[in-house]
Amino acid sequence: MNRLKSGLATGGLLALALAISPAIPAGAAASAGRDKAPAPESQSLKATEQSRAASSASALGLAKGEKLVVKSVIADANGATSVRYERTLDGLRVIGGDLVTHKDASGSVKSVTWNLRKNVTPATMTPTVSKSAAHQAGLAASKANKETASAGELVVFQSATGPKLAYEVITEGIKPDQTPTRLHTIVDATSGATLTSWDDVKHGTGNGIFIGSVTLATTAGTPYTMKDTHGNYTTDLNQATTGTGTTFTDSDDVWGNGLQSNRQSAAVDAHYGAGKTYDYYNTQLGRAGIWNNGTGARSRVHYGQSYANAFWDGTQMTYGDGTNNAAPLVELDVAGHEMSHGVTENTANLTYSGESGGLNEATSDIFGTAVEWYANNPNDVPDYLIGEKLNLNGNGTPLRYMDQPSKDGASKDCWSSTLGSLDPHYSSGPLNHWYYLLSEGSGAKTINGVSYNSPVCGTAGAVTGITHLKAEKIWYRTLATYLTSSSNYAAARTGAIKSAKDLYGAGSVECTAVEKAFTAIAVAATTETCGTTTPPPTGGALTNGGFESGQTGWTGTAGPITNNTGRPARTGTWKMWLGGNGVAGSESESQTFAVPATAVTPTLTYYIRIDTAETTTTTAYDTATVSINGVTKHSFSNLSTPKSSYVVKTIDLTAYKGTNVTLKFADTEDSSLQTSFVVDDVSTNF
Asked: What are the beta bridge partners of residue 203?
């Protein structure tokens, strides 16, 4: 069996004496064994929801002939789910017919997010325009060379003015600048008018930079291959513009020399960027890669001749070598930005036009920046500038500024009714501005040596930041659970407030900050607002049940109570992380507290999240127990389900009324293949 190996690699232009593990965020060295991915999205959940699709359609009151197709299911720790559907009508795909149902733990639908509107039935289902005419319209919309266009598929298109019978024509080819294109053109099937178009290939432009000497995840063998344990791998196109390329190999696992003349050097940057992007989504947001199924992506380098671009085409990343093939476009935030287009495609699937196009582009800016903060590479110091090392402008200025987008001369700081008419790179400005304000707040400040001065729009008040990671978590939940393909800025405000309430509570400072940040970019209030709420239990007689005060109140092994980002806390940033080391050993944490004699039905509640690298389906190699006064109440192992999501557990304390009890969490791991038992939000209810 080939094992993952950390090989030494030198990327870009300069080799430095620096080693950074792509699997472990800065500051996490103490828990270096805890770097496995959470389990991918449960296919059984999707299958279960699909089996209920007919009854769900009926319950939602959909029209006769409409059918639901499950796209994804997001399950929360409390058992609530968000189910994203696509629709068909009389066998025709409904483009823009997506919706999300939000269910509580009992399965009851509490709310529905419709894309534009519920109704998808057009005025007629009989086309009067021929497929051949639609085919020609698709060709006319494309500006590619060597193009081929599909015959046209009859669909229902949910437009801003109502559902229409239409043809979708897909035109593929190569643009004059060598960028591939896969253009979708929607042609009205009754009038022949072109309604809209968008390209699957998303790209950015610039010159290559360096990351220095890093530790690179590769696969051991004869020879070594540039492929990591998640399946991210990097290939050499050797200046071709088609094909998958040849996977990079090396005899000694030392890759590149820091010079562009060595073809491995650009591959190091690309492979590092793909790995960091996967690890960011995995460890910070609980998403197992672009497709949320634990599968990595291919990165192709050395594309075309003097191709000064990089792009995501729906399946893979591709990087050109820049002007005169001398400056590969393999900057870290380029990888994070472009691959995040893939995450958007597989969640809200925001259409790349109008306001939704701006939200799409800003989402990639946000998560490209997030990957840069996560990697914390000293050769690409984290900041809120987009493409700051590309020097496209020729004067050392970045492509975009998140603190004040208008500084680039084209982007907008504030929302307006004309925003949707702009190129998505410029209509992204207000959401980029929102992200900066929510992360760092308004006004002048210096961060990592960069000076910022973020304004607010109109008469909006000042904004206080809540940290970039909280802002990212709120926006990711918004993208994954509340936005639909045609969402606009108003929908973004509504969804982000709902997400902040879900994550932090209606009365939280985080929710209030979300409201203020949207007001600060001139997005008016909607019916969704923050409010007051009863704070979640903090432990009652139990001390520090949320672990936010570190070891306070707990006695046991040093290390399990941590704010390490390798596994997510259910709330806050601290949790008890037992195991996850992949070596033989045991850990435990305990606390003694009193159960009042006057308690009627005293209980203890906690949340636990389990993930494992063990592959067996029969043997409990790694185990954990929860005990009261030495008596085991709950047992877990690498066989326990569900995986990678918090579940709530309760212990009846009635038998212990009027006494002191000792609660103990403990685990034992064998000599290999980690299992993580992560506990959070322990509370007593008397």
From this structure: 311
- pLDDT above 80: residue 71: yes
- Contact of 212 with 10, CB cutoff 8 Å: yes
Q: Which residues are CB-neighbours of 614 under 8 A, at least 6 positions away?
A: 621, 622, 638, 673, 675
d(CA 140, CA 134): 10
CA dihedral sign of residues 119, 125, 128, 134: positive
pTM: 0.69
Distances (CA, A) of 542 to 194, 593, 624, 630, 662: 64, 6, 21, 18, 10
Coil, strand or helix: which one is 298? Answer: strand
Per-residue confidence at 467, pLDDT binned at 50, 70, 90? Answer: very high
- Name which CATH class applies to 555-685: mainly beta
**CATH class of segment(s) 347-533:** mainly alpha
Kindly name the residue from 230, 425, 433, 468 that is annotated as catalytic. Answer: 425
Indicate the residue type of 410.
A
Q: Is it the case that residue 367 has pLDDT exceeding 60? A: yes
Residue 657 pLDDT greater than 80, yes or no? yes
The predicted pLDDT at position 540 comes to 47
Classified by CATH at the fold level, domain 131-199 comes out as: Nuclear Transport Factor 2; Chain: A, (3.10.450)
Class of domain 209-333: alpha beta
* pLDDT tens-digit readout, 160-214: 899 999 999 998 888 777 777 888 999 999 999 999 998 877 554 322 334 667 7
- CA distance to 90, 117, 318, 543, per residue, from 64 (Å): 8, 17, 44, 56
- State whether the Cα torsion 274-277-281-284 is positive or negative: positive
Domain positions in the chain are: 43-114, 131-199, 209-333, 347-533, 555-685
Decide if 153 is catalytic. no
Distance, in Å, from the CA atom of 306 to the CA atom of 239, rounded to the nearest integer, reads 9
- CATH fold, domain 43-114, is Nuclear Transport Factor 2; Chain: A, (3.10.450)
Tell me which DSSP letter residue 656 carries: G
Q: Has 338 been annotated as catalytic?
A: yes
The one catalytic residue among 338, 361, 515, 589: 338
Q: Give the model's pLDDT for residue 83.
A: 96
Q: Tell me the residue type at 545.
A: G
pLDDT band at residue 145 under the 50/70/90 scheme: low
pLDDT in tens, 107-132: 889 899 999 999 999 999 999 999 99
